[in-house]
Amino acid sequence: MLRKLSLLLAASAAVSCSAFVPASPRGAIAFAPKTMDPLPVAADLSGPSTTSLMMSSYEDTFWEGEYPPSKVLGPILSKMPSGLLGILSIVCLASLFASIGGSSVLQQEPGAMATGTWVKWYYILGSFGGPLAWGLHVACWIQRKNGM
Fold it and tell me: Is the distance from CB of 102 to CB of 125 less than 8 angstroms?
């Protein structure tokens, strides 16, 4: 059992370390997907090409300067003011703290840990408040830097 665990940990460490290997230069492609030949007769030249779609995605991912443009937040959050995003972040953080507090009170009841009665769906839902609060506060920062 210990040998399998050691092998698993070594494999995960090797896989994790491979994420930090420098990328290969543009000329050396290790894997290239197969491309389809365009249809010569039925080609529609009026729509956007796949190259322009890939470039717009590339432009959305990288930016110049300290902070990204508001469009990286998507169609809904990019239109929200930073004050509202900050308030939503505080509400999500409060739901996280209420969830943790409520669960800890229920864990103190006799036999709660053995039966699992301390697990409530609304506390599980409230536990998502932490990651949401973090994301919303980053969105608030982006909007504030962009003057919204």
Answer: no
Query: Residue 13: helix, strand or coil by DSSP?
Result: helix
Q: Residue for token digits 């409520």? A: 102
Q: Using DSSP, how many helices (H) and how many strands (E) does the chain show?
A: 7, 0
**pLDDT tens profile 117-138:** 888 899 999 999 999 999 999 9
Range of the domain at 131: 67-148
- Check the CA dihedral 7-12-14-15 and report its sign: positive
Write down the residue that tokens 């703290």 correspond to: 97
What's the predicted TM-score (pTM) here? 0.57
Number of structural domains (the chain) is 1
Per residue in 68-108, pLDDT tens?
888 888 888 889 999 999 999 999 999 999 999 999 998 88
